[in-house]
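Hey, quick one: can you model this chain's 3D structure?
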Amino acid sequence: MSINTATTTEMTYREAVREALREAMRADERVFLMGEDVGRYGGCFAVSKGLLEEFGPERIRDTPLSESAFVGAGIGAALGGMRPIVEIMTVNFSLLALDQILNTAATFLHMSGGQFNVPVVIRMATGGGNQLAAQHSHSLEGWYAHIPGLKVLAPATIEDARGMLPTALDDPDPVLIFEGSSLYNREGTLPADAGPVDIETAAVRREGDDITLITYGTSLHKALAAADTLADDGIELEVIDLRVLRPLDEAPFLESVAKTHRAIIVDEGWRSGSLSAEVNTRITESAFYELDAPVARICSAEVPMPYARHLEQAALPQTETIVQTATDMTETYG
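Sure thing. Here's the predicted structure for all 334 residues.
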């Protein structure tokens, strides 16, 4: 990691998450990290590399290969006054802990009559693009965004990867953070004065007047690349990064649709029953008469994620598809 002493720090997404973990544990002795291979191995995606040597095995805890057991232990630690960060290797494996997440963490405050909060943070990698095949590559964060009692975050930028964790640790209720697995090597800059960021609002990442493009996570960077390409043809996309999938901040994209009168939603999840369907519904419920064209959705193919690289890329939303969809919308509807 190289440092620009003027105003920014150069780092990867992986380093941003690692620095967030390191600062959180330095700031609060109640914070610890637990999960499969987070210690001696340095994390499945090398996010926690070096933290065991700095903080020791009491605070960087390697767990058995049992998601239900160690997520449950994290929930118990949170109820006992600790601030656990539980790492699940990939979102697919989180299904083995779904009972703990849905039936315990998300419901405990309600079922205790407001007496017991569960301040646990659960991190996991999500999404395809790394040839990890169907049991390691799906985007299931939309499933979790369906569950009351959870906050669901999808940091796409270096600043959010660094700044969402401390805010999540301050939250009295369970927070799930979905880190795009193909983002870990992505490089970017962090402002020197960067600190915690909010976990409540969506963000306008690029302003434009012609089409509103709504997305999150890994797809944000494809959306911004498409916006650059389309700008050369005189089509200006306004790019909205949802950032927080639950509770969903609808005001920015509804305001944008009222300006552009067109919308495209890019979601790496499957189309049927997806987060894109929820966003589409909120647009039609609250901004239907602002639309000059049907809302378009670009989602992953409804197949288990292929291993072969060319098939995996074909299954995922791509910049070229966004460009073509926006071009067709402009040509068809003016």
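One thing worth noting: The chain has two domains: 8-191, 203-333.
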